[in-house]
Amino acid sequence: MSETPKPTNPEVPTPDTNKYEGLRNPALHPTDVEIRNSPDVLAMHQQIIREMSEPKDGVAPTPVWLLMFFFALIGWGGYYIAQHGGGFRADVYNENPAVLYRQAGGTADAAKPVDLMAVGKRTFNNCTQCHQVNGAGIPGAFPPLDGAERVSGPPHVLAAILLHGLHGPIQVKGQTFNGDMPAWGQLSDEEIAGVITYVRASWSNKAPEVSPALVKAMRTQTAAQAGPWTGAALDALAKEPPPAIESEAAPVTEAKTN
Amino acid sequence: MNRSLFIFIGVIFTVVFSLSGLVLVPDWQFSEIGQFKTADGTLYPQPLTGPPDAGRHVYMDLGCIYCHTQQVRPEGFGADIERGWGRRRTVMRDYMFDPINLTGTMRTGPDLANIGARQPSRTWQYLHLYNPVITSPGSIMPPHPFLFTVGADAAPPPDAVALPKEWQTPTAKYIIPNSRGRFLVDYLMSLDKSVDLPEAQ
Amino acid sequence: MATLAVPNKPEALESQELLTRVQTDRSCRQTVLIYYTSAVFWLLLGSVLAILASLKMHIPGFLADWEWLTFGRVRPAHLNSMIYGWAVMAAIGTLLWLQARMGRVRLPLPLLLPVSGLVWNVGVAYGMIAILIGYSSSTEWLEFPVPVLGFFGFCLVLIIYATLVMMMRRKVHHTYVSQWYIYGGVLWFPFLYVSALILTQAPHINGTVRAIANWWFAHNVLGLWLTPIGLASAYYFIPKVTGRPVHSYHLSLLGFWTLALFYNWAGTHHLVGGPIPAWVITVGIVGSMMMFIPVTTVAINHHMTMLGQFHHLRTSPTLRFVVFGAMSYTLVSFHGSLAALRSFSEVAHFTHHTIAHSHLGVYCFFTMMMFGAMYYIFPRILRREWSSAPLIKVHFWTTAIGSIVYVVGLGWAGWVQGSMMNNPDIPFMDVVKYTIPWLESRSVAGTLMSVGHFVFAYLVWRMLRGDGADQQGPTLLTTARSLRKQRERKARARERAREVA
Fold it and tell me: Closest to A93 (Cβ–Cβ): which among B87, B89, B164?
């Protein structure tokens, strides 16, 4: 213990090291010499008020309300882990306790009426990278949907494009585009019908809506299709009548492809 | 005097405790799960090899993770699935072979967990990497011209990608990706987590 | 100490302490100077990189042809320069000085520790070049390639050794709270660095476990390394400048051990919604919420110590920065705990809100704390004074205002950005467009902060050059008002002295 009790009054300055000039190298610190030779007590004091003593600990007790708060917090922590801990299993990702203890087996979703425009607008998020939010495409690279002839044309052609993609040169609004459109067969019938409905009714397009049943029928009819369509094959398809829509799987007519 | 020993033990204990609990236990738990056998008998996922793996290094050294994530949050938590970034949430199994974690924490740009399935057009990828504003007006992604050489010959080489009319200059009518550019797009094409997994609900 | 005859008077003991203080400061001079000046260099470089990265966010074509200056490289270069160059080097300089001061011992290893400062610089430079030319490990906060561990490891071993030696040789039996924090931080950081490096890059580890290890590390660098050093500084400088004891030893004790216990577990809240089993995230969230305990105790302790002493803020540069830092610590920790919750994270995760939060932590808390420490330590080890009080004021106000604009602006923008992103009917590009004005405000704020850094560097440069060597008494931020008060106080004291006489 090298500390001694000291007045805590900050008005009374702690003496500093200036008494020990011998420790210093006067060449490095010319001020020290000056101070030593100076009779000016004020100058001396200025150096002394430099620093307080080393910090010490006080002993105020921990407030009880704080401890109560902490115990409450720890209680909440335990409850939260028990409720949302997912049983500490590596294959449980949903923290909702209801999911963990739910019986296996799906919940039968009641068939609800679907707003195809709303579904379509969301699904169109997949398309905006090329066709853009305003449907104008990128001139010279990706064709527009706004005002395009095929978009307002026979809907089964659109379903066919979405299901299998498109490859090679096509004519849109008098311009030639030579590129690839990926297939979107992984989307559901409802989503494909939605997105077709959306593009047919957005911007300056005013074509009627398309039912998921048509997409379903088209999916069945073109099941044998291996690759993407070409522009010529689409023109041929457009001249054919749309597939018959039935609730059961329609008898498969041989798809005419390239 | 033994206070310093006491602090020493306490300090080491707390950090080892959390390392075991948070990191080592999940690793050990997962070791019993392994790949998933899909309906047609293939195993998912597979480790990356060849060009996509080389592209992963390009993805890493260009710092793509500072703006793009590779993870899809569950339905009802955020809008990742509604935005079309994936068909399902991502789970541990999707990343089991990743030699470096690239799931990311920032979405200045969109999520890329399924970019290979969402945007399979290589042309789009090349144009977008060369100058993102060509395909995405308003984008603040930096252009990556150093992944390409440009040319203006009348007869472009077979791997050239034509620039749209208004982006052409007398010296740049088409772009040719260099090897790193091709690898990077190979990697992006490989990002596809559309296999359905039982634990991803 | 035998070289000096100390008069055998009651004040002799105290004189002994003053003598030790001089010797301690002298023994720290070279080491601390090397760490501090290097830290300031990396701070300047990091600021330039930060402005570059910030400009690139809203002017994407800016310097885009140079691959090594592309955004994805400049940003990690900025982060690493600030963390491993500025923050860690400033922390090491501060902790060595504090440890020597509090133990009343001289700094050991007078030759090796200065060398370690140089070696650390080589390590940071190596890592920075590696990032800029494309050899980043692409693991956030661990971008430096593995060989850098060789440089850092060498230095850290020496620093652990020095800290342990000073702890053993200490002349005061009682260990002050700052000593625990430093001791803990010095042991934690190397452990974190090595184990995280292994777990994020060694083969045969699940990719998601790498993510957990990554955020366990990145969060703990802040919580178990920068926070302990920052708090040790606050616990030292607040009572030191005000001359009052720290409010409560019991609260200090509670604060330290709950920090050690809970902060460790908080890291996985960075992965909410990610491909992580529910329980790992739940544990992380609870760990983060439990941080209310140490943070509340520290806040009460600091506030009660400062109570009645706030007038010192007018004059003392050190206290001004330290109190700004201590208040930011409370704020950033409370915010961080709440941000860990799932409902908060759903919006704020993946947005600029997180960036604002991390700057509130590393900048408003830690960096300001280190500025405060440097304003105190530089004059002691060099035995010179700061050459200009107005420039110190410029430094304080530019950095304080800049960082507040930064944090508030980007925090708000990030929250709106997250809300917009969670609405699938808003096109993604509209979200990007919304953030651009706020990104521009960030560039302005960042420039303001950088101006402060350059002013500070200029002050340090003048101090190294020897300006202020002939000044008597500390450089205080004396305002006209405090000057008048000081004069009045003196007059009163003189009056009293005359009466007594």
Answer: B89
> Is B200 among the domain residues?
no
Structural domain including B119 reads 46-190
pLDDT at A100: 59
Domain holding B97: CATH number?
1.10.760.10
Q: pLDDT-based confidence at C485, cuts 50/70/90?
A: confident
Answer yes or no: do B92 and C275 touch at CB < 8 A. Answer: yes
Peptide bond just before C147 cis, omega within 30 deg: no
Q: Is the pLDDT of residue C443 over 70?
A: yes
C238 pLDDT above the threshold of 70: yes
**Closest Cβ–Cβ partner in B22, B65, B100 for C267:** B22
Inside any domain, residue B23: no
Strand, coil or helix: what is A142?
strand
B150 strand-pairing partners:
B175
Q: Is B33 within a domain?
A: no
Over residues B45-61, mean pLDDT: 94
Q: Does the structure show a pLDDT above 90 at C55?
A: yes
| Closest residue on chain A to B128 (Cα) | A129
SS3 labels along C279-346: HHHHHHHHHHHHCHHHHHHHHHHHHHHHCCCCCHHHHCHHHHHHHHHHHHHHHHHHHHHHHCCHHHHH
Nearest to C275 among B62, B65, B91 (CB): B91
Q: Rounded CA gap, B182 and C486, in Å? A: 72
Residues of A in contact with C102 (CB under 8 A): 54
Q: Which domains does chain C have, with CATH numbers?
A: 24-467 (1.20.210.10)
DSSP letters, C61-126, are TTTTT-GGGSHHHHHHHHHHIIIIIIIHHHHHHHHHHHHHHHHT---S-TTHHHHHHHHHHHHHHH
**What whole-number distance in Å separates Cα of residue B134 and Cα of residue B139?**
9
Measured between CB atoms, does A255 come within 8 Å of chain B? no
**Average pLDDT value for residue range A42-69:** 74
Contact A46 C290 (CB under 8 A): no
Q: How confident is residue A47, by pLDDT bands cut at 50, 70 and 90?
A: very low
CA angle B176/B182/B186 to nearest 5° reads 145
Which of B5, B16, B18 would you mutate first to test chain C, the one with the most C CBs within 10 A? B18
Q: Is the pLDDT of residue A50 over 80?
A: no
**Model confidence band, residue A90 (pLDDT cutoffs 50, 70, 90):** confident
Whole-number average pLDDT of chain C: 91
B48 interfaces chain C, CB cutoff of 8 Å: no
Query: For the residues A6-18, what does the mean pLDDT come to?
Result: 44
Could you give the angle at the alpha carbon of B56 between the alpha carbons of B52 and B58, nearest 5°? 115
What is the average per-residue pLDDT within A93-122? 67
Residues 192 through 221 of chain A touching chain B, CB cutoff 8 Å: none
Domain count, chain B: 1
User: Where does chain A show beta strands of DSSP type E?
Assistant: 166-172, 175-181
Give the C-alpha distances (Å, rounded to integers) separating C383 from A86, A223, C467, C469: 60, 86, 11, 7
C309-359 pLDDT, tens digit per residue, is 888 888 889 999 999 999 999 999 999 999 999 999 999 999 999 999 999
CB B54 within 8 A of CB C250: no
Residue B135 in this model has a pLDDT that exceeds 50? yes
Longest dimension (CA), chain A: 116
Q: What is the largest CA-CA distance in chain C?
A: 85
- Taking residues B131-159, report their average pLDDT: 91
Q: What is the mean pLDDT of chain A?
A: 73
- Residue B96, chain A, CB below 8 Å: the answer is no
